[in-house]
């Protein structure tokens, strides 16, 4: 059943007159008559009694109209909701963030989203890239932002690369290394105090193990945790050395609570983050906006 034909029936019942109903519908009176006749043929029932000047629904017409009004109302609601969804005024979306992107990109992103589109429900999930990739495949999230250098070649994903971020090694103010007269440290000096980091890409782990002459990467980190705030608090209150990208610890560097330690011959520590979504899948309007904001925030960082 054509929803427009149902709208014609409802309008005719409301106006009780073909001429008035046709004018309201911006139709010619013959066109409205043909539409009503087509509906009666489709339902195989007479829907209206045609009097001298007034049109009234038959009993069958009342039965049809009761249900037609609800369908017309739902159709109008759908049109309204689609417009709101297209304008990012309602709906929902889910996305994922790796540990470091969650630290320095997610807070301003959520603030901007709430200010601009308070009617949209945004669900943000944190995890490492393996966990997020599985959630993406399971359609639990539309996209994720995380380390991408180890994404499998056959993951069937589209990756939008983000600007690289510099990394480093950081200790608390008052750390014994900072009190030492020595200023030229090796990685071994820092490793002796215990290294803390999120799950590192295997290429980075291998490079650090080679520098430290470790037989296995399980001996590399004293603490491995994907909660960056926990790692920062650990670093602030112990002599542990934190490996992190600079934007994630910038507030503590600017406040003087953390300081970078220069290390001789340490492998380059930079990020390789990207926005990842399933190839061939169209992102929702809200997800498209979020991806654009992520790219802008990453560039500003």
TrEMBL record:
<keyword id="KW-0238">DNA-binding</keyword>
<dbReference type="InterPro" id="IPR036390">
    <property type="entry name" value="WH_DNA-bd_sf"/>
</dbReference>
<dbReference type="Pfam" id="PF00126">
    <property type="entry name" value="HTH_1"/>
</dbReference>
<feature type="domain" description="HTH lysR-type">
    <location>
        <begin position="1"/>
        <end position="58"/>
    </location>
</feature>
<keyword id="KW-0805">Transcription regulation</keyword>
<dbReference type="Pfam" id="PF03466">
    <property type="entry name" value="LysR_substrate"/>
</dbReference>
<protein>
    <recommendedName>
        <fullName>HTH lysR-type domain-containing protein</fullName>
    </recommendedName>
</protein>
<comment type="similarity">
    <text>Belongs to the LysR transcriptional regulatory family.</text>
</comment>
<dbReference type="InterPro" id="IPR000847">
    <property type="entry name" value="LysR_HTH_N"/>
</dbReference>
<keyword id="KW-0804">Transcription</keyword>
<dbReference type="InterPro" id="IPR050950">
    <property type="entry name" value="HTH-type_LysR_regulators"/>
</dbReference>
<dbReference type="InterPro" id="IPR005119">
    <property type="entry name" value="LysR_subst-bd"/>
</dbReference>
<dbReference type="InterPro" id="IPR036388">
    <property type="entry name" value="WH-like_DNA-bd_sf"/>
</dbReference>
């Amino acid at each position: 059943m054509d929803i427009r034909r149902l709208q014609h029936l409802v309008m005719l019942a409301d106006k009780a007159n073909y001429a008035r109903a046709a004018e309201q519908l911006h139709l010619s009176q013959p066109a409205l008559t043909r539409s009503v006749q087509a509906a009666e043929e489709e339902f195989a029932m007479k829907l209206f009694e045609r009097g001298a000047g007034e049109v009234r629904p038959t009993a069958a017409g009342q039965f049809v109209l009761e249900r037609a009004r609800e369908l017309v109302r739902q159709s109008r609601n759908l049109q309204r909701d689609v417009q709101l969804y297209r304008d990012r005024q309602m709906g929902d979306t889910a996305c994922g963030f790796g540990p470091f992107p969650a630290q320095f990109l997610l807070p301003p992103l959520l603030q901007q989203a709430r200010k601009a589109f308070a009617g949209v429900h945004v669900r943000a999930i944190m995890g490492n890239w393996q966990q997020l990739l599985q959630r993406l495949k399971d359609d639990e999230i539309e996209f994720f932002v995380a380390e991408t250098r180890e994404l499998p070649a056959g993951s069937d994903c589209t990756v939008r690369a983000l600007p690289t971020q510099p990394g480093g090694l950081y200790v608390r103010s008052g750390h014994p290394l900072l009190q030492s007269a020595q200023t030229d440290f090796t990685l071994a000096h820092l490793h002796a105090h215990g290294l803390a980091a999120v799950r590192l890409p295997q290429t980075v782990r291998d490079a650090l193990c080679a520098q430290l002459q470790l037989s296995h990467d399980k001996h590399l980190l004293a603490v491995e945790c994907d909660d960056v705030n926990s790692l920062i608090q650990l670093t602030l209150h112990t002599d542990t050395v934190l490996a992190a990208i600079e934007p994630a610890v910038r507030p503590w560097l600017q406040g003087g609570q953390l300081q970078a330690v220069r290390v001789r011959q340490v492998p380059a520590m930079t990020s390789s983050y990207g926005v990842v979504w399933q190839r061939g899948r169209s992102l929702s309007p809200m997800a498209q906006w979020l991806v654009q904001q992520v790219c802008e925030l990453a560039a500003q960082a």
